[in-house]
User: Fold histidine kinase from Planococcus shenhongbingii.
Amino acid sequence: MKQLFSSKLWIAFVILAIFISGQLLGAFAIKHYFIQSKIEELQPPLTLIGEEVADGDKITRTDDFLVKAFDVHGKEIDVYNDETIPQSSADAEVNKKLAAYLPKINSGKMAIEIQPVPGYSARAIIIGQPLVQNNKVTGGIYLLKEACAYQAALNGFYLVFFVTLAIGTIIVLAFLTVFVKEKNQLEQMRKDYVANISHELKTPLASIKALTETWSDHVVTDPEKIDQYYSIILRESARLEELIADLLELSRLQHKKMAFDKPVVDTKEVIEQVAEPFAILADDMELEFHITERAKNLPETYSNKDRIVQVLTILLDNAFKFTPVQGNVTIDAKTTGRKAEIIVSDNGPGISKELLPHIFGRFTKEDLSHTSTGSGLGLSIAFEIMEQLGEKISVESKGDSGTTFTITLKRA
Assistant:
C-alpha cells in the first residue's frame, strides 16, 4: 500500500511539473510571438516620432497609443502639441515604471516589454528607444499601447491548457487505475502460477518418493507388487517429464518470439495426419469421431505444418479427455474471405462461465481436483503458437452442451 501511494504521489508530481512547465513555456511562446509582431508594427512609427521629438517638434495626441519622452536625467519631455494636461497619480506611476528602462536606453539599446501599466485595463506593450540628436543620445522615447490582443491570446491559451490538462489528468488517472488493477491481477496470476506448478510437481514427486521409500525399506517383497510399483513410478516419471517439457515449451514461446516458417501447407493432409491416431483411440474409448466433408476439402493455407499439427493434437486431446462414453468429437471447417477455419467440437460437459475467460491461461483445468491427466498447459501452448503464427484461436461453450475451439489459417 505504501509503495502504491508513493507511486501515485510520484505521478502527481510529474503531472504538476508538466502543468507548470507547459504553462510557462506556452506563456513565454505567446509573449515572444506577440513582442516580435509588435516590434515590426510599432517600431517604424516610434522611430519617426523619435526623430521629430529630437528635432524639437511636437506630435498630435492619439487614442491609439501613448508617447512619453525623457531626457538623460529622467526629466519628462513634453511631446504633444496640445495644451498641457495636469499630471495624475497614474501618470506618476507610469513615469516611474518607464524611468527603470532609461539606463538601458541611454546606453543606446532598445527596450521592449509587456507590463501592467496604470490607466490601462489590460497589460500594455512598452517599446522604448534612444532619442538621438547629432549622433548623441539625448534621452529616451517610449510608445505604450494597450495589449488587449495579447491578453486575449494568453487567456485563450490558459483556457485550452487547463481543459487539456484536465482531460490529460483524467486519462492518466484512468490509465493508472487500469495499470494498478492489471498489476494486481498479474501478481495474483503469478502467485496462482507458483501455487499450481508447486502442486503439479509435488504430486508425482510425492508418489515416486513414497514408493521408493517403501521399496528401500524392503517392506514389499512380492514380485508382482514390485512390478506394480515399477509401473507407477514409470507413469509418474513420465507425467513429471511431460510437465517439465510443457513448461519449457511455454516459457520458450512466451519469452522468445520465434520466426516460424509459413510455406504453403496441404491442410487436408494435416487434418488426416492428426486424426489418424485419434480415430483408433475413439474405438477404444467408445467415442464417435467424425471429420466433415468441409474439413476434408479445405484449401491450401500458409502456415507451419508441425505447429498446426501440435495445436490440433492439443485440441483433440482435450476433446477426447472430457467427452463421456458414447459422446461425439468432430473436426469441421469453413472458409471466410481470405481465411480458413478449422473447428474442433465435442458434446462433453462444456466449460463453466467463470473459467471460460481464463481457458488459455497456465494450468487452467475444468477438473479443479487435478485428477485428470495432463499438465494443464496445453491450451496455453496452443494460444502462444497461434499468436506467433499471426493467427487466432477462440473458444465457445455454453457450460453444459459441449465445447468448440476454432483456429484460423490464411488461405493460399
